[in-house]
Write a structure and sequence with these properties.
By secondary structure, the protein is of the alpha/beta class. The chain is built from six helices and six strands. Helices cover 31% and strands 18% of the residues. Helix 2 links the parallel strand 2 and strand 3. The longest helix is centred in the middle third of the chain and has 18 residues.
Length: 210
């Protein structure tokens, strides 16, 4: 009798493309009206071309404009609509939203966020550990809905880093060691014996260090 085969799901995690807040030295967070700029749209089109031959069955996105716009570009070659999920939203930075990062760098809380984020909560906002939990839960739900399929999930850097740390078996306090660039691709394969991380922060480029 042949051994029963268990389904597996391939999740393509994509960070949204670049927007004008990326170099503004301010924390965009959930600020409305943050759209892709020309570079971000070009980044998204390049990634869409790379993924055009992939058998993507569904595309999910954070509701934030910069994510949804990226996801629409990625979904177009496959004739798919984009399904939004609140759980894929950027972290709720609370009172920090829109603030200058240089000023935040000088706070004690910033040091905690970098060294021990599992203890950190944004003032008037979300606990960082809760951010990781909702992202992981969202991915489990998506995987459950798509056995033996390839799905694309467009979200934000901290959410993707938190998920990758979790599925790599790393403590959440280590998640800041990961780098997730705009329009980058990370891939996780979910199978019967657990997750396997196949790729992290792939932009298709190999710029020199500096």
């Amino acid at each position: 009798m042949p051994e029963k085969r268990h389904p597996s799901t391939l999740v393509l995690l994509v960070r949204h493309g670049e927007n004008d807040w990326v170099k503004s030295n301010r924390l965009a967070g959930r600020t409305p009206g943050v759209h892709l700029n020309d570079k971000g749209r070009a980044q998204s089109r390049r990634l869409a071309a790379r993924l055009a031959s992939w058998p993507i069955a569904a595309v999910y996105s954070s509701p934030m404009e910069r994510c949804h716009e990226t996801a629409v570009i990625l979904a177009k070659p496959h004739g798919l609509s984009v399904q939004t999920r609140e759980a894929l939203l950027e972290a709720d930075y609370g009172d920090w939203q829109g603030q200058e990062i240089d000023k935040l760098l000088k706070t004690d809380l910033w040091k905690v966020i970098q060294a021990a984020p599992s203890f950190a909560r944004f003032p008037g906002g979300e606990r960082m550990f809760a951010m990781q939990f909702r992202m992981v839960e969202a991915l489990h739900d998506i995987v459950d809905a798509h056995p033996d399929q390839v799905v694309l999930v467009c979200s934000h850097a901290d959410l993707i880093k938190a998920a990758l740390a979790h599925f790599a078996g790393a403590h959440f306090d280590m998640f800041q060691r990961l780098q997730i660039d705009p329009a980058s691709l990370s891939i996780i394969k979910f199978g019967h014996y657990g997750p396997r991380i196949l790729r992290i922060n792939d932009t298709g480029d190999l710029p020199p260090p500096g």
